Amino acid sequence: MKDTAKHKGLRIQLINLLKEKGINDKNVLEAMMKIPRHLFLNSSFEDFAYQDKPFPIGAGQTISQPYTVAFQTQLLEVKKGHKILEIGTGSGYQTAVLCMMGAQVYSIERQKELFNQTSSLLPKIGIRPKHLSFGDGYKGLIAHAPYDSIIVTAGAPIIPKPLMAQLKIGGRLVIPLGEDVQVMTVLIRKNETQFEKHEHGTFRFVPLLENKN
Predict the structure, then answer these.
(1) Does the pTM of the predicted model rise above 0.90?
(2) Which pairs count as long-range contacts for 16-23, CB under 8 Å and 24+ apart, including other chains?
(3) Active site residues
């Protein structure tokens, strides 16, 4: 699991591209600069790791485009020590970014193949989320609620009510909403019953699946 000068040079180019595209959260950029994204792809595909594109990772899933990871993370407004629920661990790259920013990350994945891969990979590269779980992301993770923020890394047709319920007052839920094309949506919990909604452009995600027993 090498991280060479070449890899670091490619990361610098990627970070500069993200800045050009409007990512300005210094903490997000610093975290993404530190994380060897090529380790989250099969080694035969590592040439693709620092392109600003999504890439298949197995089980019908993708590792999100770096810009999308940066954009969602910026919307979360992560602070050190924040307790964050991630719906869709996937490759673990988004998990790693949040951990690198000092968040306490609780992550849930419904694809057993990806859950096993990521649970093995993250400790090997020094990334230690608080909790990784195999199960249905629609239900959230009530045992550890409430959360300072929640990030959903797959396209959802609706906002799952359990996720809204597990968010702290003042907390932020970042979720791509829609069927074929998704609108990046931020919900801010104002009190027990009221949420403020903001929309931030269109994206394409794999679908959020539910009913995992």
Answers:
(1) yes
(2) 17/52, 17/67, 18/52, 18/66, 18/67, 18/70, 21/52, 21/67, 23/67, 23/70, 23/71, 23/74
(3) 64
> What DSSP assignment string belongs to 42-69?
-GGGGGGTTSSS-EEEETTEEEPPHHHH
**Integer angstrom CA distances of residue 183 from 34, 154, 158, 189, 204:** 29, 11, 11, 19, 9
Q: 103-117 pLDDT, tens per residue?
A: 999 999 999 999 999
CA dist list (Å): 99 to 20, 22, 90, 126, 186: 25, 22, 15, 10, 21
Q: At 103, which amino acid appears?
A: A
- Judged by DSSP in three states, 37 sits in helix
Take residue 28 and report the two structure tokens written for it: 């997000």
Q: Which two tokens stand for residue 78?
A: 């992560």
210: confidence class by pLDDT, cuts 50, 70, 90:
low
Residue 73, CA distances (Å) to 40, 69, 166 in order: 18, 6, 19
Q: Does position 12 have pLDDT exceeding 60, yes or no?
A: yes
98 beta partners: none
